[in-house]
Amino acid sequence: MAWAYLFLAGLFEVGWAVGLKFTDGFSRPLPTALTVASMIVSLGLLGLALKNLPLGTAYAVWTGVGTVGTVMLGIMLFGEAADALRLACIGLIVAGIVGLKLVTPAA
């Protein structure tokens, strides 16, 4: 269950990272409220995952999922660059996440 919590925490990290773009400097109430809620859920789920997973692994996977998701949404929503080198670098992050999952004992 810890890995599921961790993955969901990473998805909510994507939510608040992308949400920041829509808050317009925290001047828009609804996007701000949704962004803050996403932050709280993300950190809460990370905390649950940390009950059973090593800190370094959990933090690296949480930020990795957040990074990959945020970059992908940046490409899709905001027209950010999607050149081969950038996508290859994202692939390396995904490989790191998978590698950490494979070498971490089941929780």
From TrEMBL:
Q: Which InterPro entries match?
A: EmrE-like, Small_drug/metabolite_transptr, Small_multidrug_res
Give GO terms for biological process.
xenobiotic detoxification by transmembrane export across the plasma membrane
One GO term describing the cellular component = plasma membrane
Keywords attached to this entry:
Cell membrane, Membrane, Transmembrane, Transmembrane helix, Transport
Cite the Pfam families for this sequence: Multi_Drug_Res (PF00893)
Q: Where in the cell is it found?
A: Cell membrane
Q: Which residues cross the membrane?
A: 33-50, 57-78, 84-103
Which GO MF terms does the UniProt record name? Answer: transmembrane transporter activity
What is the membrane topology noted in the UniProt record heading this document? Multi-pass membrane protein
Q: Which family does it belong to?
A: Belongs to the drug/metabolite transporter (DMT) superfamily. Small multidrug resistance (SMR) (TC 2.A.7.1) family. Gdx/SugE subfamily.
Family annotation (PANTHER family)? GUANIDINIUM EXPORTER (PTHR30561:SF0), SMR FAMILY PROTON-DEPENDENT DRUG EFFLUX TRANSPORTER SUGE (PTHR30561)
From the Swiss-Prot or TrEMBL record, give the protein name: Guanidinium exporter
Species of the source: Chelatococcus daeguensis
